[in-house]
């Protein structure tokens, strides 16, 4: 009886164009930020919750996309969006939750907020940034910006990503939030939204300060956020050497930038991401790499010296690639045409919403992967192009490893009275 009720509920939902609700499973909290707010232009509540179905193998997948419902602070028409939830698969970890000083890998979060501001339209790459006396006084790793000097946002991003410039960080923080203090508050809010439960930021550049702490796991979380949401960061993090031009009261002068991440030269698949070193933090690194479409992140904290952090990162990345195997289905089953009831045409062509790929952390016999098409015998008009009609399910050893939506490749409107008469006439006359 329960199954029948669920079936009836699904049919009603389909009729009313309502999303099918997942059954109760694991709950996750999602904090919307500026990027999502920009989609609607409206203020949203601080937090919303949705559930993942218990039969989804999401922990072994890299991306899950769900329709989520959220609540606005003020009434508006829109009430849903498509939210992306990342499921990070940890291949190897040691002391992942030990709280340590993060040094300049702090700047990963600074870069996230910069790209958030770019994405929202608050700032542009070509905007000028004026350096304050406070920003110019940061010390540590810097590009020696002078008070009153202006540089573009893009140049500042380059200085942060390549040369780990503290002065550029603070200048950008002041541009976006009005002050470093206000910017740091946004950093901590963003960290909370990413589930970085053991991180507290006190400044935006990573200088040693009481209470400025993080963990390897939290660094991995924010690193993933940066490279997934803003892959253009690699345009900067892979620069080995470059120059900027200082224009001050003293005139123009060139300043050379050299990437602090030696893996860019030493490891052929390296794509970034950020180094850090201070007296308390010792030598830190969040290393990203991409080999054959598989992206890995290796986080090293509190290494005794710079050479060790790089060699340890290479060891971890090589191990990751030795156990990771990505499967791409290059032979997805051919889709049939479906019969249409009550439509202006009698058949509906189908297409896959995407190609299927998944990541395995151990060798598997891909020939043993089974595929199951789930399609109705007929569909009822109207049908809109892109409507989900069915699914292709992939299983291995009886366990679901992923699904792909099957969608309508065309729209089919409902038949009119005239269409019905015409069809009857053609049938009676035997017209083709």
And the CATH topology of the largest domain? Beta-lactamase
When the domains are counted, the total is: 3
Percent strand equals: 25-35%
Q: What would you call the structural class? A: alpha+beta
Gyration radius over CA: 27 Å
- Binned, the helix content reads 25-40%
H/I helix tally: 12
Based on Cα principal axes, name the global outline: elongated
What is the mean pLDDT? Answer: 83
State the end-to-end distance: 46 Å
The biggest beta sheet is recorded as: 4 strands, antiparallel
**Name of the top-level CATH class of the largest domain:** Alpha Beta
Q: What is the CATH architecture term of the largest domain?
A: 3-Layer(aba) Sandwich
Beta-strand segment tally: 20
Give the strand line-up of the largest sheet.
Answer: 15-20-19-17
Please name the fourth-level CATH homologous superfamily of the largest domain.
DD-peptidase/beta-lactamase superfamily
Enumerate the spans where pLDDT stays under 50 for 5 or more consecutive residues.
Answer: 19-87
What would you say this structure looks like, in words?
This protein has 432 residues and is α+β, with helices and mostly antiparallel strands. It folds into three domains: 2-86, no CATH class; 103-323, 3-Layer(aba) Sandwich (Beta-lactamase), CATH 3.40.710; 338-429, Peptidoglycan synthesis regulatory factor (PBP3), Domain 2, CATH 2.60.410.10. Helix content is 30%, strand content 28%. The chain has twelve helices and 20 strands. The protein has helices spanning 2-15, 34-40, 107-120, 133-136, 153-163, 166-177, 180-193, 216-229, 234-237, 263-266, 306-323, 417-429; strands spanning 26-30, 48-52, 63-69, 80-86, 128-130, 150-152, 241-248, 251-258, 270-278, 282-291, 294-303, 325-328, 338-341, 347-348, 350-352, 357-360, 370-374, 378-380, 388-396, 399-408. A four-stranded antiparallel beta sheet has the order 15-20-19-17, with no helix packed on it. Strands 9-10-11 form a three-stranded antiparallel beta sheet, sandwiched between helices. A hairpin with a 3-residue loop joins strand 9 (270-278) and strand 10. Helix 3 (107-120) runs parallel beside helix 6 and helix 3 (107-120) runs parallel beside helix 8 (216-229). The longest helix has 18 residues, at 306-323. The radius of gyration is 27 Å and the shape is elongated. The two termini are 46 Å apart. Residues 19-87 have low confidence and may be disordered.
